Amino acid sequence: MNTLPVVSLTASSFKFFQFPSLHPSPLSHSPRFCFTKSLVLSPTRLGHLSFKSLNSLSPSQSQLSEEYEEEEEEEEEDEEDDDDGDDEAADEYDDITDETRNSDDEAEFSVDLPAESARQRVEFRWQRVEKLRSLVRDFGVEMIDIDELVSIYDFRIDKFQRLAIEAFLRGSSVVVSAPTSSGKTLIAEAAAVATVARGRRLFYTTPLKALSNQKFREFRETFGDDNVGLLTGDSAINKEAQIVIMTTEILRNMLYQSVGMASSGTGLFHVDAIVLDEVHYLSDISRGTVWEEIVIYCPKEVQLICLSATVANPDELAGWIGEIHGKTELVTSTRRPVPLTWYFSTKHSLVPLLDEKGTHVNRKLSLNYLQLSASEARYRDDDEGRRGRRSRKRGGDTSYNSLMNISDYPLSKNEINKIRRSQVPQISDTLWHLQGKNMLPAIWFIFNRRGCDAAVQYVENFQLLDDCEKGEVELALRKFRILYPDAVRESAEKGLLRGIAAHHAGCLPLWKSFIEELFQRGLVKVVFATETLAAGINMPARTAVISSLTKKAGNERVQLGPNELFQMAGRAGRRGIDEKGYTVLVQTAFEGAEECCKLVFAGVKPLVSQFTASYGMVLNLVAGSKVTRKSNGTEDGKVLQAGRSLEEAKKLVEKSFGNYVSSNVMVAAKEELAEIDKKIEILTSEISDEAIDKKSRKLLSAKEYKEITVLQAELREEKRKRTELRRKMELERFSALKPLLKGMEEGNLPFICLEFKDSEGMQQSVPAVYLGHIDSFTGSKLQKMMSLDESFGLNVIKDELASDEPEKPIVQPSYYVALGSDNSWYLFTEKWIRTVYRTGFPNIALALGDSLPREIMKTLLDKADMQWDKLAESELGSLWRMEGSLETWSWSLNVPVLSSLSEEDEVLHMSQEYDNAAEQYKEQRSKVSRLKKRISRSAGFREYKKILENAKLTVEKMKRLKARSRRLINRLEQIEPSGWKDFMRISNVIHESRALDINTHLIFPLGETAAAIRGENELWLAMVLRNKVLVDLKPPQLAGVCASLVCEGIKVRPWRDNNYIYEPSDTVVDVVNFLEEQRSSLIKLQEKHEVEISCCLDIQFSGMVEAWASGLSWKEMMMECAMDEGDLARLLRRTIDLLAQIPKLPDIDPTLQRSAAAAADIMDRPPISELAG
């Protein structure tokens, strides 16, 4: 039997062992394996076949893939984004039942018979690589050219691959942007061939350990075991090899040494090239800064090969690398090697999402069509005889066009939601269609782990495997159980034997690897996975199903971004196997085909810089000399190297991608602003009174000109009077509103109606509940914000027409607050109040001891983040809106719609002065209208009208230019060099904590330790690990304390009867409580300097880790445990990673280092021990 070498790594030694391959070689299939002919099934026969016969029966081979849960620093966060909404995860599937149906479509099922084996192709490639190396040894590096590199492959490479390889051979760095699964790795492989043939070295970096492990295996097959090494957080295999695969953070830490304090060697000895795979991770909020740091710190003589999925701004990425690193060429490709077709699944069908041209939504998926289809279905359910008679009478015309005439009216929001709910398919509906259309295997993305598990249960009555395939799964499962008895997920076995599995962060890494293995062999037909799989190892399928375009994030649902959508869709289509790939979007209660199309056509988003400073960055860039202890106990500074000055560090930090984009944007924006100002100046002169007068004199006769001029002067005067009368009317209205609103500050909360015109000029009316005048919010966040922000300033309004009446008061608008029926807060002046009602909320406590409703809502408003948007503005004050919260939702639901509030309920009654002013305004409007008609009947009006129309067009053009100018000015105000402010803030914390003297660059022992640590908050970890309270701890107790430092994001997930976790020992509790005071001091210091870096210290899970380090078995740990297996495994691996660092850190007590090594060694055992190589 074939064997697969696997390495189990501990902090102290490498232990090599063998385990049988989980699948047989091509020559050693089990007796139960068989090949069957492909079936062509007619619609009639299809109805009599069970599901198990409707499948391709040719499993393909592949090696066991590695787990990818843990990255040595922060990659676990990528795995945790499927957590939100787990408590409600299965709600979406409550109504799902397993059904089987007969297909109306003819289906053809074929078997992919094995061609030349992958092993044979790899052997040929290895021979060709060796041949090229031999030629270079004999005849020199001139033998390396594009044709020689291409010749190692037994297929024709794509054009973009050839262009990228040629650029590399010219000595350039290369940025490659191409779709997922298009073959970008081939470029890196060819570069590695050229580099190895020259006798030099290449580093290949990936964002995830699983990807590093996968590339490690692939490159060893091509280049031989001796030529390939692996470096991850806890693995170091053949690290001096010519090709070293590593995680991105490892390379960043190497480069720190070349720019930081201990530059005895850069770690880049003889390195000619570095491959940055998945470079689009640069936009990742938590880890993107690592990619930028690598480009900034990398020696310029090293060529960079940056491989990215399709993004909107690859030119900016290439331009940035070219500016700070050296000559860089950009190669892009939008062509997918396997074309992708978008489908949409509803309750009754699976049809193409787009029309035949691929430019609009499929007509059969429009809301009107779906409404009519539902009506037609109900119509068919009527009495059969009566339906037949009616059909014969009316000709049975139920075509789309005829039915559209019946429903030619706009649908209300409730009708749209009703139609959507009626069309939501069950999982079994969609799976049945996928199987019938030969679209399996599929990766089915569901955005929470319990949703994935529930989906497996709902469809586990489907049989997607034939007897031969089922036998292969049973054999693989038996082998896996023998090797890893604790890693078997018992609840998943039933589904697995039917070709269905779940894959998410709640599973053990070993189990996920097993699922990946079976999927790649074709023995799992459907895997329900969270979106983290889209960024994981290579697991292409024929179809990718995306269950929803929204996912839960905290307490709300957020929409997927285009990049996320295309990343998941990119998993569809297997190169060399499928002629087409399919992405299936699913009708949900939240979105339909129109929303799907909008996202599909939105296009990918640009890369965005996430460059942020950290304690490790500052310490490694600035530190120069360090303190050494002498025998007499005094401290002295010994210079290892001259530390970088702050000015030099600033130059490095300001090389970030964000600053490059900002500087380009600023230059372009300033140039455009200057051009806009010139255009506005020219256009302004064209519509001045002098210019219009000049054009009028030229086009009109003297008599016509004189008549028009006199009439226009009269019109201007009448319009001025109209404006003043309108203002007077508004002021009288204000005078009536102010005392009314003031009288409502106490007692019940009345309903009001706000009215305004939106950005499109449409009149909007919003019912709301009135809270009070802004002055009643004394000391609130809102009042403080308004006092500091000039945007909320108000002008004193003077009544020009009443200026001769000294007793007439001057009116000043005021701001008021209300909560709208749309769950939005509104901030407004009297200008925007249409009316006030006598009905409202009674200001009475809902229960004994509760606060009054007005006080509750004021408290909820004070909790908001004060992100106000301006809806409308006028000289009488603006109207502002801010989104409410879940807590305000119940209040807003009780605000009635306007139609239920009658005019009889209105309490806003105007004074006689208002009525007089309104009458005067009305008369003046009529006067202006009559004067306009008189002008239109004048002799020269036709020509004069052309002049005015041209002037109007010019004014509109100026408005657009001014709007563009405002947007550019706002963007310029927002742009500022990123990174340096944070760098200096962190420097101040380091200086005050005595880790580094920022003035002399003298680094203290605390700083030395922090500079060498990998973690979220290096300074905090160093403070803890240097604390003498840890020295006397036993290894299990030390593990428990370390777990409290790395458990951020881990959650308790009580489920059914599983609601227990182990408690920590008293010793661990005492140590953590002791450390809390030190943590509080650091947090205060960080707050003083506006630094926001988490200082994790949470004892909740310390008992679980302490129990594992004490030797408890996995079954004992998981018995009625309130944690998912994957979460516990991730926590244990994080703890092991920190423990494994301790023996390597400088200035740490040797006793503590020995305890840490012992704890790491004890903990690193199955089923959480990782596979490497």
Automatic annotation (TrEMBL):
Q: Which residues form the Helicase C-terminal domain?
A: 438-622
GO MF annotations for this entry?
ATP binding; helicase activity; hydrolase activity; mRNA binding
Among the entry's GO cellular component annotations, what is one? cytoplasmic stress granule
Q: What spans are recorded as compositionally biased (Low complexity)?
A: 56-65
Q: Which residues form a coiled coil?
A: 666-728, 914-975
| InterPro entries on file | DEAD/DEAH_box_helicase_dom, Helicase_ATP-bd, Helicase_C-like, P-loop_NTPase, RNA-DNA_Helicase, SH3_ISE2, Ski2/MTR4_C
Pfam families found in the cross-reference section: DEAD (PF00270), DSHCT (PF08148), SH3_ISE2 (PF25446)
Q: Which segments constitute the Helicase ATP-binding domain?
A: 165-329
Acidic residues bias: where? Answer: 66-97
Where are the annotated segments for Disordered? 56-112, 380-401
What are the entry keywords? ATP-binding, Coiled coil, Helicase, Hydrolase, Nucleotide-binding
Q: Which CDD domains match?
A: SF2_C_Ski2
Provide one Gene Ontology biological process annotation: Group II intron splicing
Is ATP-binding found in the keyword set?
A: yes
Q: Which domain of life is it from?
A: Eukaryota
SUPFAM superfamilies cross-referenced by the UniProt entry: P-loop containing nucleoside triphosphate hydrolases (SSF52540)
Protein name, per record: Helicase ATP-binding domain-containing protein
